[in-house]
Amino acid sequence: RQSNAQFCPPDTLARLGVKLLTPSGGERAWDVFLLDYAINSPLHVVFTPAAMHQYDRAFAFLWKLRRVSHSLASCWRQHMALQRHLASCGQQLGARAPALHLEMRQTLHRCTCLRNEMHHFVQNIHSYVMCEVLEISWAKLQSGWMGCTDLDQVILEHQKYLSCIEEGAFLTATAEPILTALGALFGLALEFVVLHDQVCASAFEAVEVLGIEP
Length: 214
What we know:
Layout lengths: L9 H6 E5 L8 H4 E5 L11 H40 L1 H7 L1 H49 L4 H18 L7 H34 L5
Antiparallel strand pairs: 1-2
Helix pairs in contact: 3-5, 3-6, 3-7, 4-5, 5-6, 5-7
């Protein structure tokens, strides 16, 4: 209900499903989740199993990108809740435990700076993929299809479309080092979110132990 899917025709939504890949070590539901779309005749001539596999790879990359962006945004909301709580009892905390108060402020400041840099990087990658890759590739596909006169040309234009997405989203063999580096950075961002949650939980607990009321 909160996505653009609400504007899709019922027939489109009825064809949409979920596909779960076989998880490997350390993977969670986020890592094996894929959206699946049922293709019937005669569209299966254009959307072949090989083409659908290319869509799956592109979706997996975009899904991971969106997951990291969402996690960092959630991290910021928790951080702001803690900041408001500390601001309301800052004087009492500073009086009872000045060293702890200073350590909290310094740690939260470093967390904020690091989160902002991560979020800025992820948002730039997201904007690049959405605007410079997907939108431009889609415009080229529409333009190409307008000039098609037979099915072979339709299939060729669609394959060009998928190739443009793979090239722009670092999914080609030549761009594998870039994709690997991005995956490592995304993994570090998710690890940071876990550590940040632990820091915030410890800070809330410390304030509660000291018996400081906001």
